[in-house]
Design a protein that fits this description.
Length: 258
């Protein structure tokens, strides 16, 4: 029981410290000139180099979801509605969540390991001795790059996933393309697209803040860096899944008031 209380206490303290780090990032954005060279470097690493994993995930998810939806809809003679379900699911739920999980596993781990290595080798302390705040120099460019890259990667997952589903539906499942596309355009609303973009922004913010926080607070040499990297990935994935539920409820009530 005491161990559970300790874990809960550590979780609450960690959330508070991540929130304080977020406040520092906001303060830095409006008071300090960002490190644009580091920002461009992170945009290349987070956005461009994550395209392959997002493309693969989006295509495979779109095809699998299309096939499973078709097999169920075929029982009630609703084959042409398959792509409409794929379109709504990819834009509002599957696209941002899966892209966020992939970015958390690839980028979050690398981000934590890089900052954590700088922490244990006292490079961050050296920045402070040169009157350079680590948040301004290291955290802000990474947060900005992740928040900007995530919606772009999510849109990429949408396009590839829906296109792969359409190819599968028309070539292997025998669904009429014209009717399927008509249903998809009719049932996929602008609100679904907006919901997916908002979720991607929030997920990018969570991934970058948690990863940077874990990197800045790791210790005990190489073992501490490995532990911090593992914690950052796990906590980022949990944060994405939990926040996705509450974002869905909130955005649905906000965008669909009726």
């Amino acid at each position: 029981m005491s161990a559970a209380k300790g874990e809960l206490f550590s979780f609450v303290i960690g959330m508070g410290r991540v929130a304080l780090l977020a406040c520092e990032v906001v303060r830095s954005l409006f008071s300090v000139r960002p490190n644009w060279a580091e920002f461009i470097k992170q945009m290349h690493f987070i956005g461009l180099k994550s395209q392959f994993v997002v493309l693969t995930t989006g295509a495979s998810t779109g095809m699998v979801f299309c096939a499973q939806t078709f097999y169920q809809f075929h029982k009630v003679k609703m084959d042409n509605a398959t792509l409409s379900v794929v379109g709504v699911a990819m834009t509002s739920e599957l696209g941002p969540v899966l892209a966020g999980l992939m970015v958390a596993g690839r980028v979050g781990a690398a981000m934590t390991a890089e900052i954590g290595t700088m922490r244990v080798t006292e490079q961050i302390d050296a920045l402070r001795t040169m009157a350079t705040h680590p948040v301004d120099h290291l955290v802000v460019p990474r947060v900005l790059a992740t928040v900007i890259s995530m919606p772009l990667l999510t849109v990429l997952a949408w396009v590839v996933g829906i296109f792969a589903a359409m190819i599968l539906a028309s070539s292997l499942l025998g669904i009429e393309s014209a009717f399927s596309l008509k249903h998809m355009y009719f049932y996929t609303d602008e609100e679904d697209v907006l919901m997916g973009v908002i979720k991607a922004l929030v997920f990018g913010l969570l991934i970058s803040l948690i990863s940077c926080y874990r990197g800045l607070n790791c210790s005990n040499g190489a073992e501490g860096v490995g532990r911090a990297t593992n914690e950052a990935v796990v906590q980022s994935c949990i944060a994405i899944l939990v926040s996705n539920f509450f974002l869905t409820l909130f955005l649905r009530s906000l965008l669909y008031p009726g």
